[in-house]
From TrEMBL:
The keyword Transferase applies. It comes from Koribacter versatilis (strain Ellin345). It holds the Pfam family HisKA. SUPFAM superfamilies: Homodimeric domain of signal transducing histidine kinase (SSF47384). It catalyses: ATP + protein L-histidine = ADP + protein N-phospho-L-histidine. Gene3D superfamilies: 1.10.287.130. InterPro entries: HisK_dim/P_dom (IPR003661), HisK_dim/P_sf (IPR036097). This is histidine kinase. Residues 140-204 form the Signal transduction histidine kinase dimerisation/phosphoacceptor domain. One of its GO terms (molecular function) is phosphorelay sensor kinase activity. The keyword Transferase applies. The lineage of its organism: Bacteria, Pseudomonadati, Acidobacteriota, Terriglobia, Terriglobales. Keywords: Kinase, Transferase. Its EC number is 2.7.13.3.
Length: 230
């Protein structure tokens, strides 16, 4: 996964400095962007994984919370007092509020790290689901090709047989037509090789599936034999 990004919104420079200084002692450190509440805008919030809000000017706090409530990213607000905490909670239940008391930095990093881990897990699950859908589509296409192999082989046999019959009487055709018939025969043989490879792959997959089913059974029998010696 790419390095997570955290946007810190605060009108106090010490807040961001304290947070980043403490976070650098952790094993995973995100990329930080710091801005004050006056220049914050929705587009800035959409480009990060997590938003942390520290102390901001009272006159801009409510408007900032309203704007943050429209975003899809997780938001953690470090409230300096009960008034700010209630204001943040009233805007959206999705906004997490943390009171700025003793030990708040460690608790904030713990909560933030958990949010980022969940985002990473969600991203991995989405990628796995996408890969699974792609593999399912490829498997369906492969199965269709195997199912149509016999029909293609019958049609190909007819084309190849007729081309060879016509080539047995070269005097009936011009040189250009004979060259075209030879090309049809050559390409038909090539297609026949491809279809034969499909059959070989199907056989290999069948044996591989049988072997994978036998291995767990052999392991169980081996353990059972070992247990009987005690």
């Amino acid at each position: 996964m790419k390095q997570p990004t955290v946007l810190v919104v605060s009108d106090q420079g010490e807040f961001a400095q304290t947070l980043m200084s403490r976070w650098h002692s952790e094993r995973t450190v995100p990329a930080f962007t710091v801005m004050n509440s006056e220049v914050f805008h929705a587009n800035a919030g959409q480009s990060c994984d997590l938003i942390i809000v520290g102390p901001v000017a009272r006159q801009r706090f409510s408007a900032l919370m309203t704007l943050l409530a429209t975003l899809t990213q997780p938001v953690i607000v470090v409230a300096g007092d009960a008034v700010d905490a209630m204001s943040a909670n009233s805007k959206s239940a999705r906004i997490m509020v943390l009171r700025q008391h003793e030990g708040w930095v460690d608790l904030l990093i713990l909560l933030s790290s958990e949010c980022l881990r969940r985002l990473e897990a969600t991203e991995r699950a989405e990628k796995a689901e996408q890969s699974s859908a792609e593999l399912a589509g490829q498997a369906m296409l492969g199965r269709y090709m195997l199912d149509m192999r016999h029909s293609l082989n019958n049609a190909l046999t007819s084309v190849l047989g007729n081309a060879e019959l016509l080539l047995l009487e070269p005097g009936n055709f011009s040189e250009e037509v004979r060259d075209q018939l030879a090309t049809i025969r050559t390409m038909s043989l090539r297609m026949n090789e491809i279809l034969a490879r499909f059959s070989s792959l199907e056989t290999e997959l069948t044996f591989a599936k049988r072997d994978s089913q036998r291995e767990p059974l052999a392991y169980v029998r081996s353990n059972a034999a070992g247990w009987s010696t005690f």
